[in-house]
Amino acid sequence: MKKIVTVIGARPQFVKEAPFSKVIRRRFEEVIVHTGQHYDDNMSRIFFEEMGIPRPDVNLEIGSGSHGQQTARILEGVERVLLVEKPDYVVVFGDTNSTLAGALAAVKLHIPVGHIEAGLRSFNRRMPEEINRIMTDSVADQLFCPTQHAVDLLAREGVTENVYLTGDIMFDAVLHFLPRARESSDILRRLGLEDRGYHLMTVHRAENTDDILRFVSILEALRVSDRPVVFPRHPRLKGLMERSEVKAVLRELPHLMMVEPVGFLDMIMLEASAGKILTDSGGVQKEAYYMRRPCITLRDETEWVETVDIGWNVICGADREKISGAIRHFDGGDGGDRERAGSGDTQEKEINDSPYGEGRAAEIIGESIGAYLEGGQ
Questions:
Q1: Residues 269, 181: contact at Cβ < 8 Å?
Q2: Which domain holds residue 102?
Q3: How confident is the model at residue 43 (pLDDT cuts 50, 70, 90)?
Q4: pLDDT tens, 288-317?
Q5: What average pLDDT does this structure show over 258-272?
Q6: Where are the alpha helices (H) located in 26-147, listed in sequence order?
Q7: pTM above threshold 0.85
Q8: Catalytic residue among 204, 234, 255, 329
Q9: Do 238 and 180 share a structural domain?
Q10: Which of 239, 256, 279, 354 has the fewest CB atoms inside 10 Å of its own CB, making it the most exposed?
Q11: 204 is catalytic
Q12: CATH at 276
């Protein structure tokens, strides 16, 4: 049996690993390497438990650090694992430091690399994620693209061989886990929330967490909200929340409900039941679309352009007036979609018509890796 090493380390990668591991273990031996890039229990352990992800075979426990420090430590740690395990193939997801370091470790040892979520571009090279994804795509042997747009972008860069249109593997996860979330999550009751009676916000990108002016501008825009705003606070924000400028704005936002980070089931339940979603997360933008919830993106660009083209996402950056206007007036989608979404009964049939595939990304990726390893690429 061929051996595959899967490198994961951050919350979005755990979500993608759940459907991938389930499929890949039918025909391969899988060794999971957790880099420890996200290590807080609410950002790591809870995902493995509630999504049934196999326990990592190796945890490098890298932790925090500058981009250079973190990437170097992960590179060194993954290399050690690869030298011991001698896998036939390495899989990396997305655009984190774990993604780039895992790919570099493998390619330097002449081990084939598959990049899941390849071909995405923001065209903003100030984003560390943009550099990570460009570099990973440049060394990967197989590139698994979630959208036709991603395939087209790679073609514009001259990359057309071993490029696969798979659909979005996160869509697989949402389709599988949304019914379970509806049955088991009690997050609305615990927080005293009503369906469509609140908005949801997440902030974690460096452009917003490292720039206090941007973060304050985002917070100030929340003044116009006529509903509570639920805000799962990312660990990266801990120091920023203690700044006097931030505290001053928070005192004017009694309707801002800050909570600890939540697991995937609670998160998709919060998304499905929110009035609107404000986020700088690529994954949450897509999940908002899958739930047919209006999304206000707190970045100046997005890789997930389909959500904007379809009309469920509006790009506002950290512009206070744009965000405020979107909170007041942006409803998303066309009239029919709004009527269905507003019913409070989002069902799987309503999220199946998607530019992100049919919820079979993990199956397509598994078949493609199998063909590659058997010499049929």
A1: yes
A2: 3-167+360-373
A3: low
A4: 999 999 999 999 999 999 999 999 999 999
A5: 95
A6: 45-51, 67-85, 97-108, 128-139
A7: yes
A8: 204
A9: yes
A10: 239
A11: yes
A12: 3.40.50.2000
